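User: I'm curious whether this sequence folds into something compact or stays loose and floppy. Could you predict its structure so I can see for myself?
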Amino acid sequence: MTKRGHHQVAADRAGKAWDGRFREKTHRLVETFTRSVMVDGRLYAEDIAGSIAHCKTLAKAKILNEAETRKIIRGLEAVKRELDRGQFAFTQQDEDIHMAIERRLTEIIGPLGGKLHTGRSRNDQVALDVRLYLRTQLDKLHAQLQDLQRVLVTKAAENRAVMMPGYTHLQRAQPVLFAHHLLAYVEMLERDKGRLRDARVRVNIMPLGSGALAGTNYPIDRKYTAELLDFPAVTANSMDAVSDRDFMIEAASAFSIVMMHLSRLSEELILWASQEFQFVDLPDAFCTGSSMMPQKKNPDIPELVRGKTGRVYGHLLNLLTLLKALPLTYNRDLQEDKPALFDALDTVAASLEVMTELMRHVQVNRERLEHAMQGGGLLATELADYLVMKGVPFREAHGITGRIVRTALDQGCEISDLSLAELRKFSQRITEDVLTRLTAVAAIDHKGQIGGTARARVEQRIKELEKHLS
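Assistant: Here's the prediction. I'll summarize afterward.
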């Protein structure tokens, strides 16, 4: 008989871990409906790590002797090797990854495998596994966010002298540096990293030892278990520990904000790559064509990231709704937490990976950006501020500038095209030095305060970020 065949026969002979109470065998529809191993299977490494720590804790409490402890740990390591290599034979009776591992452990080492579950429940076991898994994934996402930041800073440095119109209401507003615009996203991603770090603090609390809901009767040292698994703290209330999914909701909220930022960047790339803007050119390798229109080059990657953002938002709402009316403590509803969390994680990770590579290869159309600096009254605010510096109250200066803008529009020119004599018709406070102020470079460089778009300030920020992200 094959290895798989031996596993299957043993599993078929075995009953459920809880079937002593029941007269009837579980209905096949219930078996299928409640089975979650296809979802929680990704937790196998965490489940085995938690089980090894639990085994050592039982040994410390003299519940297992040294020989039993060594045999259980060797068995768990053997199960992990099978799972690592894709050689683990799952059966229809494997309700979830936790029971599948326990079933296989017992096949390998015999009835001794049944001692491993002493002093724990699947309730605190699952809570532990998800915390271990999420802790690792948050660290990976943090690194991905930093990779994207590095690419954006590099792209900003490569285009440090390029100017562009800044927009409000999608209307041209004031001149800014293209690098300053890109660095705005670096700041957003820095906040995202902070939220992931904050969430990790509340993830990183050890729930094992809470039992099903009331704690355990065995003299286990929970702080010892936490130390083995590199947790700085243990949960303080067993009922809260097995029913708490706040850490998932907090993580999903952070994921949603990451996706919101990626979606905003995607929207700008879609606009900038359009024929109407032509500010950037997206790499061919990250675009697709049309099945009907040969000329098309579609920005599918940014569009998909924008679309997947709603998917991650949905998972956050899923988790919030799942928890909103659950009485303490554990309820089977909580099985539905992992599909939402895992898909949100996978979506954010994939989106960060592809957007980082896309941004690495985006080409900036400097000539087009320079052309976009013409028209739109970009220097109107500069003139108003110039009048204020000459002693004119801002509201009055705003009105004077508005009338000058109207005149320039009527003449089909920019305010900078008007002569000094024409400008002085609106205010005698305007003198010859206004001509040096009504340029895009002057408009940018006068924004020299912290956070401004002045060339010196942006150059300084690029250097700060390069050092911070190195």
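Summary: The two ends are 57 Å apart (CA to CA). Residues 122-158 form the longest helix (37 residues).
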